[in-house]
Amino acid sequence: MDADALVHQLKRLTVLLDDESWEVRREAATEVGNLGPSAESLGPKLVDMTLKDGDRDVRNAAASAIYQLGSVAGPSIDMVVQALDNKERNVRRSALEALLRLGAMAEPHARSMAALLKDTSSGVRRAAVEALASLGTGIVVTYTEELAALFGDRDAEVRRVAVSVVGDVDAQVSKPYAAKFAAMLQDKSTSVRTAAAKAVGLLGEAGMKWVSQLCAMALEDSSREVRAAAARALATLGGTRGLLVKELAHALGDKSRTPEVRAAAAEALVAQGTGAADQAEALTQTLIEDDCEEVRLAAASGLLALGNDVAAGLSEQLLRAALHDESSQVQFAAAQALCALGSEAMIGNNRLDNALRDRDSGVRWGAAETMPALRGEAKLSSEALVKALSDESWAVRRSAADVLGFLGRVAAPQSGKLLGAALRDKDADVRRAAADVIAEQGEAAVGHAAQLASLVKDKDNYVRSSAARALGKMGMAAAAHAEVLADALRSIDVDLRRTAAEALSAMGPAALNFAEQLTAARDLDSDEDVRLAATKALAALGVS
Fold first, then answer.
1. N or C: which end of the chain has fewer CB within 10 A?
2. Contact yes or no for 329/293 (Cβ under 8 A)
3. What is the pTM of this model?
4. Of 96, 19, 101, nearest to 65 (Cα)?
5. What is the mean pLDDT of the segment spanning 507-528?
């Protein structure tokens, strides 16, 4: 870029950095960063934005731009460091957040950052912990004592980040704080107990002393997040895995325990690692026999998480749950497990085709949700799915349309006629799903363009947006309907206006006829997302 062009660019960006739209300011800061050292003159402005802009994304973009100044960033970084002494707590916190993003450039200022671990503001103390952690293990080790002192902080988030940071360093460094970690397993804050459980798990042999406490937490803590963290900690500690799996499997099948405890046992079993037949057996039995939906759901999800080697041998049980469980959530989880297995599930195209014709709509729905598992037989299964688009159950029709969208262009030859019918369906969810299918098929489904154009004026807002998006996915093949999208730029539906602008950007020369409408949307629309979409559309069309 020559000198005159650079001057013009910097002037333009200077104006945009003060725009009322946070997205415009963020994009402008990103552009400044892309200029690198050439944008040195904007360093003070970037610092001001980093410290004082009201939007976090803008502050982060400005800090990243300072980093990209490279060799000439020194004066700007010094200004940020000076702000650590500012009387305004928000400015001090923003300065720490900026230094976090500056990486190694901020390392010489670690002592100044550490001083704020004792700040009167909890937000500043938390930011100081995070900023020091970003500098790497060496810096954390240097300030371990100061960080550990925050384990007793009155603010839960400060306690959490302090425990997390110290717990993540080498076990030999964190070992002296083992008792403190263990004491925080009883903290009143869910997030602190979660962090403490992870820290104990990372202690290795030094953490074995608290296995019983972790096991109790994994089953009985009131927080699912904590239960999961305790289970993962037990898996990390190892050593007692065989005994622990038996104990958890027993808890899973113990009907005298509450459903919450049995579900927690299922999740804890999975956390102990993959490939265990005893885990799979306990989960499968639960999936088939437990009378609680929550527990069966945890078992189905757990079988998926155990990995393909284990779950592939359980395809029959998973398929039974996907087709016949009385809970749609359990059906869905089992179907997802089968879909993840793909060809390894070996469930057969005919099984699902037959299920799609079952008298029970729940069975038909489960079959539709399981269809992606066939993958290699997609051309065959798509024919059955297309027939399901005319099912009497709206749930089956919607699922069939969703799965056809997953199959994409491979289903286009069979889906044409019935997708057209689905676009006319009385249920808005089915019309929306059909439009989404066509979007995935792109130009291959251009025969539906006229129908989609009419749906841009549908009474349902989700259908309108899906139809506009589908036209955009067809690109120039749907250019004959660009005028419909241009008209949609005046809709009261904000999401439709944004989607229409995005769709026009893909329609090439035909969309140039509507540059005036896009320009009006860019300059006058009340919504920031619409203005940004119009700006990008004009840029894609080569209009300044």
1. C
2. yes
3. 0.56
4. 101
5. 91
